[in-house]
Amino acid sequence: MSLDAEGSKRFLDQVLSIWIKPEVELRKSAGTLSKSFALSRAQVIMYPDGKHVVRLNEEVKASAKVKATRNIDPGEVYEISSIDDIQEVDLSPDDSPDASHVTLFVQGNIARIFFDFRRNRGLAKERYEAAMQFLDVAEYCANKMLLRPFIDCLFSAAELLASSQIFLFAEPKYVKKSSHGQTHSKYNLHSKWGIGNKTYTTTFNKLSSIRTSARYLKRPINLSESDAREYLKTVQEMADYTKRFIS
Prior knowledge:
Blueprint: H1 5-30, E1 41-46, E2 52-56, E3 62-68, E4 83-91, E5 100-107, E6 110-116, H2 121-144, H3 147-167, H4 172-176, H5 180-192, H6 198-216, H7 225-246
């Protein structure tokens, strides 16, 4: 995501006033930071439980895609002055995959700020991977026209994909313990807000409505092979979208 000049300035001011400046002043008061300290980079790591850590200068750790001013050998350690442009920044592999971050680099009179406020990406990826297993079984059942396990497995895949997307922005209570009803309600709400694809939401709702009949034999299953194939195709597309959404 990118911001215009005014939005970038306001965002930078907020990051500095809320996190960076208080941390600098706190460390100076404690005597752990020089009074002549000059900021060259900073990072705020925010954890799903509400805690956060502020890193300054050499403490900053990140994975970044950069454009260098010279040829860099694999594994070489080089100074930030050797970087012409920072294009992408993500958390270091050493950090929790469920944390979000704001990372700031100062180069001369220019401050570059990168952020990703998505939480629980590690947990979201686990749910995505589980969904893919159910999706594989659903495809097998579709080829055999085993409709009851097909519907049950395809619904499970769609629900896991939906919750995977929701995890990135959900409150800790939902992440800790979610239900069918909560996932259904939240995913429909996300669709109403314009997040995601309405076709995925519609298919998820349809699968939800027939899943009980398929799983618990409440009534006969009346699903044509063409409809089954269409449901499968949509959930496969939903899986591709989810992978991009959580990466």
